[in-house]
């Protein structure tokens, strides 16, 4: 009977398996997919202006010593309209925000700004979603917090609500 | 009243299960035969009661009795009758009742027909079966009662997921269930034999038909499921390595391994502990599979009915059953011993290799399926996809196929390999011809499909080798079964290889009148017309496919829209149009209309595939199941009795 411990091996494997199951049942799956670029520098890009009269956006412009926000939006995105007042409030508080308009037409972006305001310093046009995909963003709206060296520090998925505004301000303050 | 009667029958059956468990346990302790007398009748009664209860549930669905919650949630009075009936098991509660009915019915069959096994082992087996069913009775009655009434009946029901309104799917789950539950009998036999320490040829012979039968149903279920996914989901693939597909494959692999090892135990009284272990694994994997599907543990296209609460209940049940069986195994298997010895170069030896390869594939598939959970526990999010499975399981499966056809050419116990070496060259020749043909004329074929088709040719030729030089009329049916099943593997493999290597795909936005070329076919887009079905509306395209030789065939792919019923959201499904030709299938899907800005004629997304030999995959699956069926019939008791009687009569005539 010297090999008898081997007979307990299946039981042990089952124990491990069930441990995994219990873990998964008690901690339900987090279905939010976070960007893999957090704490990494912005991927390189150079986007043309998204509408007449605004400036385009280059990744090299993001590392100018000041933390800032990069907001991914589109004129066709309804939640982006709901987010506009909060972005406006952040801009009034002195936060520097750049925008990336995804799959949008210049005329539509201009109309969007006329109706909901333009809180952005620069707005790049990402016709093929290539920058959005490179950033690991999975939808609109999304907001990235970038530090002064151009490194992505945080990703905010979905609409920025009223109560997010002070949180974002505090995070930007901490990065200064 | 029907619902209440159905529920009452379930409670009575549960009480009988409880009684059997107690009586069985007392008998095994004290050996008092009076106690055991109750067990066979109780098993038969349980089978009858649960089956009747399930029939009552079907009746409720047929009558569209909307005062029953399950019917109101899953059916609709406008649905075609066949889908009303199929709706009975197209949901969690109904499918659990079906599961339980099959479980109790198979217990009843064991109780009625099993005469060869020692009585105490049989009682232990039926007790184990009663213990299994008791847990599932508790699960059904306490957390998923199918007969629950609504306080106020709604005017009509919410309908069934339109994807599931398909004739293929009406029979896919019950088929798999029969397979899963058949393995539960093997599990109970293994537990029974461990309890009475009677692990030997008699036990293996009693268990074998159940393993074989359930394996046939698993094969059919997986084959049908694969074909359903192929034509109903409209993605044109036949296997996605989706978690739910994997958890149906894992018991099949365990069943295939068990099927071969149980034969070794039955014929040669060897591999005893291993056979018991596989019997435990087989049903454990069925339960784990059900648990994964039902608990929403993994994200999958199959997540139709998900509820974490029920998941916890199932987990506790599984922990008791699997943990109990494995503990029993750990304590008793040392006493079972391995049985008779044999040389590596023998049929047993090749079956051992086959078993090890099958269990390796099983472990790899299971690992890939569950790895995302492990990775997430470590704080990483990944998904495991086809590249992993194809790369790790593919090569092993090919080696397995090669060993598979060599084993039958060896004798039991030991062999000098004379027969094997004599017949091997022809197989190698067939493989070499295909390999060189493909390399020279096939263009750029991936390494795995290339090897797949090569091995398929090798296997096809050598799988027939056991028949060479034999009188075909006197060859026993189980041998025929083996040959047919192994040949089916070759056909299946060839289909997979050819489809992967030579598939042609076209995705276009076409206007009526356009001509699309795919492979050697010209497809003319004749037009689109609206259609009204019994419970949906649809766009139907008319495509004319012209073969290279000029024959014309009309295809009608549809894009169906099911309206939301009673507050559910509307759903779209694609009905692919298939044109089956000797060389493969043309597969057409009609997608969404493409809006045109400048008033040009409307364009539609059309997706066309030419899939060479694709139907061989399911033909192969069917042959594998047919082979299993032939073996099962060949070993059936009544046939043996009949043959013996005929032989005796013939002798009497000569006397």
Describe the structure in brief.
Chain A is of the alpha/beta class and about 180 residues long. Chain A has six helices and seven strands; from the N terminus they run H-H-E-E-E-H-E-H-E-H-E-E-H. In chain A, the strands form two sheets. Chain A has a five-stranded mixed beta sheet with strand order 5-4-3-6-7. A two-stranded antiparallel ribbon of chain A has the order 1-2.
Can you offer a commentary on this structure?
The complex is a heterodimer of chains A (176) and B (655). Chain A is α/β, with parallel strands linked by helices and 176 residues long. Chain A has one domain (46-175): Glutaredoxin (3-Layer(aba) Sandwich), CATH 3.40.30. Helices cover 37% and strands 18% of the residues of chain A. In chain A, the strands form two sheets. In chain A, strands 5-4-3-6-7 form a five-stranded mixed β-sheet. A two-stranded antiparallel ribbon of chain A has the order 1-2. Chain A is elongated, with a radius of gyration of 22 Å. Chain B folds into four domains: 1-161, no CATH class; 166-344, Four Helix Bundle (Hemerythrin (Met), subunit A) (Up-down Bundle); 399-502 and 616-654, no CATH class; 504-615, no CATH class. Chain B is built from 19 helices and ten strands. In chain B, strands 2, 3, 4, 5, 6 and 7 form a six-stranded antiparallel β-sheet that branches. In chain B, 50% of the residues are buried. Chains A and B meet through α2 of A and α11, α12 and α13 of B.
Q: Name the structural class of chain A.
A: alpha/beta
Strand composition percent of chain A:
15-25%
Question: What is the CATH architecture annotation of the largest domain in chain B?
Answer: Up-down Bundle
Query: Helix share of residues of chain B?
Result: 55-70%
The DSSP helix count of chain B reads 19
Q: In the residues of chain A, how many domains can be counted? A: 1
CATH class of the largest domain in chain B: Mainly Alpha
CATH C-level class of chain A: Alpha Beta
Q: What sort of overall outline of chain B do the alpha carbons produce when their principal axes are compared?
A: globular
Gyration radius over CA of chain B: 27 Å
Calculate the mean pLDDT score of chain A and round it: 87
Lateral arrangement of strands in the main beta sheet of chain A:
5-4-3-6-7
Cα distance spanning the termini of chain A: 68 Å
Head-to-tail CA distance between termini of chain B: 65 Å
Poorly predicted runs of 5 or more residues of chain B: none
Report Rg of chain A. 22 Å
